Amino acid sequence: MNGELAMREITCWFDFASNYSYLSVLRLARQKNVIVHWKPFLLGPIFKEQGWDNSPFVLQKDKGDYVWKDMPRECAKYGLPWRQPSEFPRRSILAARVALLGEHQPWIAEFCARVMLANFEHDEDIGSVECIAAILTSIGLDAEAILAAALSADNKARLHARTDEARALHLFGAPTFFVGPDMYWGNDRLSDALAHATR
């Protein structure tokens, strides 16, 4: 029984600033037949270790031009709203700190989805306290208490530890999924990961 349950679980590593993470987070938030383990982390430190000081979609013009043409197609395919953010990538550290607090709470999927929509549908500054507080309040949570905990030294240390965990797993991009020990990278591999998790 435990083995059967484990095969119906998927772990999603994502960054709130990542446009392809947006697609996967919204898709996974709809899933009813798998248990999703949400793993928010920051891509920035991972990219820096690869010699990049920004998203490759910014550093490589041709790749960036392609991505902003690809995103409307992908969103249309999955029935998701889309607006190219006026700032990319946005600072996602506060949202990640809040998500760390909530990753085992019943509100985590809704919070993640709403942050993603704030960034990639409504073009809001998800790095601001005001934006994150409004999202927390909109789902019936005590924004003041959660933000205070998110900004605590202990929680900041947890986010650093999460980056170390990502390094140990050899993550190089987001979204990345795990089904048991098997890794799948990219929104275009989410269907494969879900098929593996539910077979």
TrEMBL record:
CDD domains: DsbA_HCCA_Iso
Alphabetic keyword roster: Isomerase
Stretches assigned to the DSBA-like thioredoxin domain: 10-191
Domain of life: Bacteria
Pfam families (UniProt xref): DSBA (PF01323)
Gene3D superfamilies reported in the protein's UniProt record: Glutaredoxin (3.40.30.10)
Keyword Isomerase (UniProt): yes
Stated family: Belongs to the GST superfamily. NadH family.
Name of the molecule in the record: 2-hydroxychromene-2-carboxylate isomerase
